[in-house]
Amino acid sequence: MEYEKQKVDEGIGKRGMPKPLHRMSETERLERRARIRIGSEIIAYAEGFMRKEGFVQMLPVLLSPITDPLWPDPAAGIYKRLEVDIYGTTVRTMHSMIVHKLVGTSLLMDRFFVMSPNIRLEKPERASTGRHLFDRSQMDFEARGASSAEIRSLIERMLHGLVEHIGSSMREEFSTIGAEAPRFKVPFGVYSREELEKRYGKDWEDELPKHISEPAWIIDLPREFYDYEDPETHRWDNFDLYLPKRGELVTGALREFEYKKMLSKMESAGVKKELYSLLLELAKDGKIRHSAGAGIGMERLIAWITGAEHVGDVQAFPKVPGIVYEL
Ligand code: ASN
After folding, report:
1. Which DSSP state fits 326?
2. Nearest residue by C-alpha to atom 7 in ligand 1
3. Are 225 and 265 contacting, i.e. CB atoms less than 8 angstroms apart?
4. I want to staple 119 with a disulfide (CB 3.0 to 4.6 A). Which of 18, 47, 70, 93 is the partner?
5. Which residues of 66-102 are buried (b: 16+ CB within 10 A; e: fewer)?
6. pTM metric for this prediction
7. Domains in the chain, please, with CATH?
């Protein structure tokens, strides 16, 4: 499906839509500046934390023949996949570096992370959710031999340390935006998707954020082939972290590493297995190692901590679905 060009004026005229820098008032610019300064400190803290935990930072990949299918995932809302031919080969913009993470932790580095830009062309209807962008970054990381519980605990420790650090070191910026860093206790509560479906029905993803006052883990979410599914119980060893009022911040899992399971999940989901032949070959040769990891949406993290209405309000150059800004 193609969409008509939406004028920037119409898009940003709507309530709550992030404005480009050159159309902001002086006060609005000061607020954007304060959010971006806090964001810079958040990024530095998160990177420092990961290094102390033994993760090596690697630079991102932007184009590759292999990217995340983002399918099947009930939360996905991609309207178009960007592909371009270079040197006679089709490459795609990165939806996420998940396949690179599986191969990287298997063949190169036990633990690593990437501040990874992801281009996901979300449907324009998602402009007003306040949570979606078509050009955004996640802190994407993977650890060989880790469990889901270890990854969840690592994220809890990071977020806990982060809000303490930011709250005390960025007082001036918080006063400019008239906000305070969120407070919460760790460990976070854990809910199973099954339990939430019973309580809130199939729209639990929209309902849950209205009913929690602290971040909460959701486990056992049927989705892409790379998350681990128990062959007997059919439970998925994966998780999301949901924020009060805002929804998903983190996605992660223990990974599949067995050839047969990956292949049969791709087939039943209708994912083109030719696109993943390298991963499948490595798995067939027993070269994909057991790992677990996650991705933290950086704009969502900064927006939550700075109390921004829209995730585009923490970007210097907003990338709201459906609107192509001049910069
Ligand atoms: N980064 C996510 C993960 O590690 C995958 C994604 O972004 N789709 O599970």
Report:
1. -
2. 96
3. yes
4. 93
5. bbbbbbebeeebbbeebeeeeeeeebbbbbbbbbbbb
6. 0.97
7. 2-182+257-314 (3.30.930.10)
Residue with tokens 């008032």: 25
Distance CA 187, CA 183 (A): 13
From 115, 140, 217, mutation site for ligand 1 pocket: most ligand atoms within 8 A of C-beta? 140
Q: Answer whether 322 contacts ligand 1 (Cβ < 6 A).
A: no
> Which tokens sit at 125?
């209807």
Centre of ligand 1 from the C-alpha of residue 187, in Å: 22
Q: Taking a C-beta distance cutoff of 8 angstroms, is the pair 112, 142 a contact?
A: yes
pLDDT 10s per residue in the chain (327 long)? 667 776 667 777 777 899 999 999 999 999 999 999 999 999 999 999 999 999 999 999 999 999 999 999 878 889 999 999 999 999 999 999 999 999 999 999 999 999 999 999 999 999 999 999 999 999 999 999 999 999 999 999 999 999 999 999 999 999 999 999 999 999 999 999 999 999 999 999 999 999 999 999 999 999 999 999 999 999 999 999 999 999 999 999 999 999 999 999 999 999 999 999 999 999 999 999 999 999 999 999 999 999 999 999 999 999 999 999 999
Q: What is the pLDDT of residues 38-91, one digit of tens each?
A: 999 999 999 999 999 999 999 999 999 999 999 998 788 899 999 999 999 999
Verify whether ligand 1 is closer than 6 Å to residue 105 (CB atom): no
Q: Residue of the nearest CA to atom 4 in ligand 1?
A: 294
Residue 252 tokens, joined = 């992660």
Atom of ligand 1 nearest to the CA of 141: 4
Strand order in the sheet with 56-57: 56-57, 111-119, 135-144, 291-297, 247-254, 238-243, 216-219, 189-192
What atom of ligand 1 comes closest to residue 118's alpha carbon?
7
